[in-house]
Every structure is written in C-alpha cells, then in structure tokens.
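User: Predict the complex.
Assistant: Input components as received:
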Amino acid sequence: MSDDTEAGRLDQHTAERLLDGAGGHAPLHALLTTATAPGRPEELGGEDAAVAAFLAASAPAARKSRLTGLRRFLTAKVIALVGGSILLTGGVAYGTGHFPGQAPEPSPSSRHHEHHHGGGNDNTPATRYSPSPTHRPSSSPSASPTTSRQHDKANASGQPKKSPNPHSTSTPPRGSDNDNGNPPATGPGKGKNETTRPTAKPTQPNNIRRKPQ
Amino acid sequence: MRECLHNGAVDEDELGRALRAAQDGDEESFRMLYRDVQPRLIRFAGALVGADAEDVTSEAWLQIARDLRSFRGDLDGFRGWTATITRHRALDHLRRKSRRPGSDLPVEELVTMAADGDTELAALDGIATEEALRLISELPRDQAEAVLLRVVVGLDAKSAGKVLGKRSGAVRTAAYRGLRRLADRLAETGTARPLVRGDKSSGPGAEGVT
C-alpha cells in the first residue's frame, strides 16, 4: 500500500488539522475545501418533497395531540358536572331535611318508597342520597371525603342492624325499620358513583366534592 | 466546525435555532436545515452509492421528516443523526443492488489536471466539487466514509464513529490513511499526468493534454 510509502508527506497532526478545516498540506487543503463548497441547486432538488414529508408528518401529530387535549378537557368537565350535581342535590337534601331515616314525618319516606318501587326513577334518589354519607360525617368534620367510604364501612361493620347492602349502611344509623327502602336508595347511589369512575381517576370526584364544603 | 454549506451563509447559531423551530413544526426552519444538511448528505451518500445518492437521500429525508420531533440533541447531533439515517438507507440500497457504483472508474478520468502546473495546488484549482468528491470516493470505503464524515458532514471523530459504529480512534486512523492516500494520488497525477480529460466543467485546467 502506498499508505506507508509516502508517510513523510503527511503526518497525523497535519491530517487532523486538515480534517478540522485548517490549512496544512496545501493541495489536500484545496481538495477538501472544494469538497465542502456550498450546496448546488442540483443537490437540493428534493427540498419540496422533503418539506411535503415534513408537513405530512407534522399535521397528524398536532391534530392527535389537540384531540387528546380536548378529550381530557371534556372528561374533566363531565367529572366536575357529575360531582357538582351530586353535591348540590345532596346539599339541598340536607338543607330540606330530606334524609333517609332522618325525617320523622312519614310523608318523605313514603315518597322515597314510591320512588324505589317505581323502578324507573331509581337514579334520582340515588343521586339525591348518595352525598348523604359525605355530609353525615360533617357532624364530625375531621373526616375527609376520601376516608368517608372507609368510614362508612366501619360503620357498617359496627352497625348491629342488618342491611341488604353493606356499602349503604351510612344511612341506617338514624333509620328505623320503616326506612328499609332507603338503604337501597344509597346503594344505587354508590353504583352511580362507580359508573362515573371508569371515565375518570377515582380520586377526582372526591376532590371535587371536597371543594364546596 | 467547518463552514456552513448553506448557500445563504447561515451561521451555526441560526441553524441551531432553526432546528428547534423545525421540531416545533416550522416549515421555513425545516427548509433552512435541509439546505444546510442535504449537500452534506448527498456528498456522503455519493461515496457509497454513486449516482443513486439523490434517491438515497430522498429516502433518508422521509425518515428525518417523520422522526424530527422525537430527535433529541443539538445541531452537531442532528447532522450525525441524519448521516446515520442516510448511511442506513445507502446500505439498504447497496444490499438491493449488490454492487458498488463508481469504484470501477479510474481516478484519472475524473480529475482534470492543469497542463504544466508546477504545483498541485494549481492543478486543484481546476477541480470542481464533483471531481473532488469523486476523488475522495475512490478511496477504500472505510477511508472515504471517515474523510467525508469529518470534512463534508462536519462531525468530530467521536460523532463520526457513532455514525459508522466504530471507535473514534478507528475513525481517526481511517481518515488519516485516506488523506495520505489522497495526497499520494494528487502527487501521482500532478507529476505523471497519466490521463487528462479536458471536457469537464473545470475549463481553466483542461488545456494541458500531453
């Protein structure tokens, strides 16, 4: 190989300088400078095709991220609406004293009975009564909404009264046997909460519920 | 770092900003990057696939445009990344064609020499960019790649090694050997002038056929 026969002509230091764009071996420097001349039009013929690919690659990504953002925003709104309406209706129920087991008059409880036996309106009492567990601990304000469910369960285990649904035992404390229809009322309420959960993070409804308190 | 190959003489800082903007979807910035990088890539690819370099770089740019947003790095890193993509596309191309274009042409047919130029520099004045690149591409492939990545693409030895899947020391050695061989070839053609063709674009040096 001629690599070694002409070793004296170009040492490694000079080679490095040439590779870095500095001078040195004049003919080689001229050759390398020529090789780095500015781009010629014929070398840039693919510009529009590259730009088209660039725009095509940019557009779907932007659209997708916009859609994802919109979906997230809407999900948050739905959660806020559901949580807010639950709270509001619960607050109304609390204010008007329409609590299951709390009302001494027979008329509200009988009305609830009708609701439950009506069948189709199960959801209405469900949303109405489901917040009552969160409000009932307000007698002990330190209980946070996130722990209220556990609190309910603790009550359930502590309750001597049998209830058909252990998750709904937050209502029986003040209930009598007349209010047997009410525990199922909270049962569907829970169920409704659970149906909203898959669309959102489980903690969010609790957080939203906490705000108005 | 070597000078910019962009025709508009854009400086490196501006190109660095253009890289960020292009990653955010700015078309003009992408064009600016293209005009800087494409000449480097097509010259590098030319050493691998000869006349098919344009096809190879077109394929490479499809991938560059698609993956630009996910690229992480600075302008030098971007040049290395694009060179890696181009090299992969070139090797795919070679696998498909199973040949190496360009290597069957003697360098003397590609270089236009000065007639009685007493210095090699004077001879090189007549060599257009294309001929200079062909002269480099006549080197053994590892040497040609090392020289082109260092000189034309503008990478340091370490970055060039990443493109080639080699250690930086191996790249330095290959580039050194390539330059020595180029110097030898220039000396040979400058003194012996075995064959001169004057029909190339480099007119000033074309008159000296002996």
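The mean pLDDT of chain B is 80.
Let me know if you want any component modeled separately.
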